[in-house]
Automatic annotation (TrEMBL), chains A, B:
The organism of origin for this protein: Sander lucioperca
GO CC term, one of those recorded: membrane
Name of the featured protein: UDP-glucuronosyltransferase
Keyword Plastid: no
Ranges that cross the membrane: 494-521
Lineage of the species this protein comes from: Eukaryota, Metazoa, Chordata, Craniata, Vertebrata
Length: 544, 544
């Protein structure tokens, strides 16, 4: 008898399914028409990698891009693009974010309490401004009959959008298209805070820089952040769209109700990275979907890597959006690098630091995934963007974090809590501190062991995150939505959602019952005491 | 250039993975030692089908069974069994449940309000009694040094248990084994009510016979059920185990804390069947994992099916546990069947109804899945057990439900809400009503269309539910648990979980702030009015 190992039958069935797909051709939904409304910057990197996969599966895509886009090309072999007005002067200027970085770094010198609220205020200001711009853009689109006719005539099967900016949400809802989100950020924070119950006691609010095991004061801080988010949503974001909703949607529509009607939320995290927390049936985790095995490096870079010998290489990059650090910080970093036995590849734009050592190679761009997957790489100095964090997890490289903006503080905290990273404040960084932290990361085995455990867990999935993303996008196309995965709770008014009306009734009934009982007792007591008194009188009378 | 369809690359990778598995042999965790603590009756059917799959993958299993077991064999080619004392006299008597059925049916004639609470009381009584028996069994095991040494020496890699009865939970926790639940029911209701946030406003409590879109009165009813469940858990279930926990576990341990520490919950539903609701990262859906394609029928039965011609066949079965219905009910059913143009296969134990028609075949046992998957089958008359409901979904057969006990009312409601079933009260059933309902199911196309839509959605999964179950069982073995998927909220006391301590602080501070502000205002007003009075006096004085 032929011995088949234990998992043979499962694998034979997968194998046969694979063969069927290969020879019977694409699935029923290949060649679908997909409207894509992405967000610019690093978010586009996340969207493009999915579009490439969808293109290879025969889907036809139309991408809405800003005519002032930084990253999204107007000509592409994988999609058709349509120019629309999305960004306005200041928001379209990449230097705006560099200025903001310097401002945030400056304010991080303030005491924690003031700093946190200042930072939050800064984000609220940006949010309010951004949503005003978005609302004007949406209005312009809906008011443009030629554009809207083109949209309607295109008979899209699906809208795929990143709801960090809600143009896609509003447009897709107006066109009544099945909707899939490629999402991490929405409205006032991380996507889960909008779609899933998020108990304040163990779900840290975005920007709070808290983990999931909080003491009393941390829970208080989290509660304040949560209240602030609520205020932000209802007083700074919602009003921006009231005019659009009044003109184009049924009464009672707000941004939240449209977002909650999305069919599938492809969330760009997983629970190897994110703290465990409640989730919903239409939330699908695709964290690390953009990661792939490392490829060969350019010849010169490979030679540089090999020249590091047994000590290996440190890779440093602070992401795509922000390229400038204050001079004293870069000098301190360069001086610390110079004292390492390792070699260093540093993605650097700006004036060359005078303290740069011979072991450090400055490059304007680096093939990050190929470097992180290289066997000589020992550590990753990073700003903590989600993409970089997932590449570190995928390739199992420990991180020294220098968070600068947005979610980077929260992201790095997640790796730090699992013993896979150290985090430093870029504004107060000295050569000595940076060197000590870097040596710690390089020489203490636990950092490498912990990130490799995360890497092992991340790879231990029934299906790759990219295949998962594609499956669910095509699922929504095939089934014309996924209404059966959407919670009925979203259609309730807030007081019914929290059962406050029911609680009032039950308390009123209980109160009435207690009151009636007391009344009855009183009446009975009164009567019996009166009878007693009357009886006593009689008795007295008889006796007398 | 060779044209490869869109999904070719994904399929090639799956195909290659399959080949690797086939030729490189079993995964690292094949040959693991698994301790299995099942629940008897229909629950065992669910467990056994997983054990067969695990056995085929080379795992070695030890099953704890009651020496009075109804269904679990003491000799098996796929596992070793160990006899323990689990059930006691009354609970081990299958007729006990038949008696209970008649009692429940009788009480369903009562007005809804009284009936619901009577039924709930009956369940509480059973629960309290069952947990007392369980606690004694657990105590006997933990007190038995020979048994416990055997357990410890076996060096199990995992415990797989159905927590509807908590013997496995307590034993596995004591042995500190990684734990996987094969679960639908736990403590006071459906598994989700224990592990995931369950807003009362749209998550119907088990036994409430409510759906997810409730009006005010229904939400009030659900809230009362929820309060009742809380009382049941804390006053009827927890106390049963206090002695065991005091003697064998650290202070503060209760049943809930051990259950919430399970690594993976394989829940025997999915959202094709269950109403969408919040879930948790370590909850995996395997609804319908026991379903397989239909096989050929025995020759005689096949001939009977074919003899039905274009009208087809109705299949009726009321499950494995309860086989007796009152005589007048079976007579009414038989008389109604006799008037159908269809043929009928009826799983029937008891006295043959006098009104039985020639078109009806009575059988003591029937190959349910092969019958439901048969092209001649037109409808399924069922009691609403989960297994039967999933077989109806899998094969796309509309259901006429006669719920009798336990979760059957809630299960059938789920199919009814989706337009795939009708439900009747077995106690008040007349021939005319039954015939009308059956004809409706057979002749109105929407029932068949709706259940076939559910069937299509159920089959549209990235991986079969059985492969999913096996993946996650082996995942827990490979990674020695899944602590990274367990919520930190479970370790909080209830007042911290609901942030009541934080709310009190914030309200106190707000109150103090308001009080201080009022005080300051008063002082200022007082002073200014006094100064005004003094000024006024001067003025008066001058004027006078």
């Amino acid at each position: 008898m032929l011995f088949l190992p234990g998992n043979a039958s499962m694998m034979i069935s997968i194998f046969l399914t694979g063969l069927c797909f290969l020879f019977l051709g694409p699935t029923c939904c290949s060649g679908s028409r997909i409207l894509v409304v992405p967000v610019d910057g690093s978010h586009w990197i996340n969207m493009e990698v999915i579009l490439r996969e969808l293109h290879s599966r025969g889907h036809i895509m139309t991408v809405l891009r800003s005519d002032k886009s930084w990253y999204i090309p107007s000509n592409s072999s994988i999609f058709t693009s349509i120019n629309v007005t999305m960004l306005e002067d200041e928001a379209a200027d990449i230097n705006y974010y560099n200025k903001m970085l310097l401002d945030v770094m400056e304010r991080r010198r303030l005491p924690t309490f003031i700093r946190t609220f200042y930072q939050q205020y800064l984000i609220t200001y940006m949010l309010a401004k951004g949503h005003e711009i978005m609302a004007r853009s949406v209005s312009t689109m809906l008011d443009d009959p030629v554009f809207m006719k083109k949209m309607q005539d295109s008979k899209f099967d699906l809208i795929l959008t990143d709801p960090a900016l809600p143009i896609g949400v509003v447009l897709g809802s107006y066109l009544k298209l099945p909707m899939v989100f490629n999402v991490r950020w929405i409205n006032t924070g991380e996507g889960h805070l909008t779609i899933a119950p998020s108990p304040v006691s163990y779900v840290p609010v975005s920007g709070s820089e808290l983990h999931d095991q909080m003491d009393f004061l941390e829970r208080t801080k989290n509660m304040l952040h949560s209240i602030y988010s609520f205020v932000e949503q209802h007083f700074f974001i919602n009003p921006a769209y009231s005019d659009v909703f009044q003109r184009y949607f049924p009464p009672g529509t707000d941004l939240l109700s449209l977002e909650l009607a999305a069919d599938i939320w492809l969330v760009r995290t997983d629970f190897v990275f994110e703290f465990p927390r409640p989730t919903m049936p239409n939330v699908v985790y695709i964290g690390g979907f953009q990661c792939t095995k490392s490829g060969p490096l350019p010849v010169e870079l490979e030679a540089f890597m090999q020249s590091s010998g047994e000590h290996g290489v440190v890779v440093m990059s602070l992401g795509s959006l922000v390229s400038a650090l204050p001079r004293e910080t870069t000098e301190a970093i360069a001086a610390a690098f110079a004292q390492l036995p390792q070699k260093v590849v540093w993605r650097f734009v700006g004036e060359r630091p005078s303290s740069l050592g011979n072991n450090t190679l400055l490059v304007k761009w680096l093939p990050q995934k190929d470097l992180l997957g290289h066997p000589k790489t020992r550590a990753f100095v990073a700003h903590g963007g989600t993409n970089g964090m997932y590449e570190a997890i995928y390739h199992g490289v420990p991180v020294l974090g220098l968070p600068l903006l947005f979610d980077q503080f929260d992201n790095l905290l997640r790796l730090k809590e699992r013993g896979a990273a150290r985090v430093m404040e870029a504004n107060s960084l000295t050569k000595e501190d940076f060197l000590e932290a870097l040596k710690d990361i390089l020489e203490t085995p636990s950092y490498r062991n912990n990130i490799q455990r995360l890497s092992q867990l991340h790879h231990d999935q029934p299906m790759s995150p990219m295949d998962t993303a594609i499956f669910w996008i095509e699922y929504v196309i095939r089934n014309k939505g996924a209404a059966h995965l959407q919670s009925a709770g979203f259609s309730l008014p807030w007081y019914s959602y929290f059962c406050l009306d029911v609680a009032v009734l039950i308390m009123a009934l209980t109160g009435a019952f207690v009151w009636a009982s007391v009344l009855v007792c009183k009446v009975i007591c009164c009567r019996s005491s009166r009878r007693k008194n009357v009886g006593g009188g009689d008795h007295t009378h008889i006796v007398s």
